[in-house]
User: What shape does this take?
Amino acid sequence: MKTSTKSSIFTGTNSLNDLKQFISSGKYSDVAILVDENTYKHCYPLLGMPATQKVIKVMSGEENKTVDSCLEVWNKLSEMSFDRKSLLIVLGGGLICDMGGFIAATYLRGIDFIFVPTTLLAMCDSSLGGKTSVNFKGFKNQIGVFKNPAAIFIYVDFLKTLNEKQFLSGYAEIIKHALIADKKMFEELNKYKDIKEQIEGLISRSHKIKSKIVYFDFKEQGMRKCLNFGHTIGHGLETFFLKNKSKETLYHGEAVAVGMIAAAWISFKRNLLGKDELDMISSYILRMFPKLIISRRDIHLIIEYCKKDKKNEYNQKMFVLLTGVGQCSINNAVTDEEIVHSLEYYQSL
Ligand SMILES: NC(=O)c1ccc[n+]([C@@H]2O[C@H](COP(=O)([O-])OP(=O)(O)OC[C@H]3O[C@@H](n4cnc5c(N)ncnc54)[C@H](O)[C@@H]3O)[C@@H](O)[C@H]2O)c1
Assistant: This one.
């Protein structure tokens, strides 16, 4: 059963020309481009827009993914008299796509928006699937709606200005797609010497996996939950770092990488995953991502933050577990004790 409307996806070297054609189709009464300070500096010039183009700037950073930032943009759209036939182009990473999508989906009960993702995470994952959101009271993605962009334009040259940590953050979602749905892909990832050489193909394979899942379960009633593999502990960790100003910035994918190892360990302990598979997953992720130091005291706080996760049901923490490499099971209630032990396992590696 089809439950979502797919967005048109334009990829390849011509995608920015496709974007220009899309805007000039005459369909829209007005067009604004939402950027943050970095995408304005590094990506906006590549679009070759006229000097008269309306641009709205927001600040980057999870602490700015808030309703307050949305208010500023809604105000600007209103001041510029944007009507229901206007278009918002979101030029940025997963954060600004999530927030820009939410702004457009709610302004005048919804105007069209398109995504021009500029990070690997946004290209391979977050621009697809129609989840829009902002953080609320310091908790991740608590306010939002499901709505697909009218189109997505993927231009991989934007990745040239992304720093290594941000690039890797996106790569975590590619690993996730392979682990939940494509064993052969995971084995291939293990063999690649330079993932950057393979990136266009990997983005496209990630799309195929995510699109197939989201197409049948847009509102995450069932199988779409598998895309949350690694994300319950991941979001707990992200919230912990967000609330601890003394800690360095932890990127989404870095947190998910830890969450995937922890969830794989719980899968192993429940006899769903073999020891050799657990070892292969842990060693690959640790080869790609620097090890995070998590103290015993921190683990208990992280569990508290996991309790706020949207995926929890009836006060139980619901995990996606692996039933092998390339396959998974959803709706597994996991105890606090299992989470503690899984993070201790991570620390022991
Ligand atoms: N909607 C979904 O399905 C979904 C899925 C996964 C993650 N997310 C969300 O995505 C967000 C993380 O996204 P992200 O990892 O893309 O981070 P991000 O959007 O915060 O971008 C990371 C940093 O890179 C900068 N940047 C972006 N593009 C650049 C470029 N081409 N060159 C130089 N700098 C650039 C940004 O300004 C920012 O400082 C989180 O808020 C997370 O909750 C959403």
User: Anything to note?
Assistant: The mean pLDDT is 93.
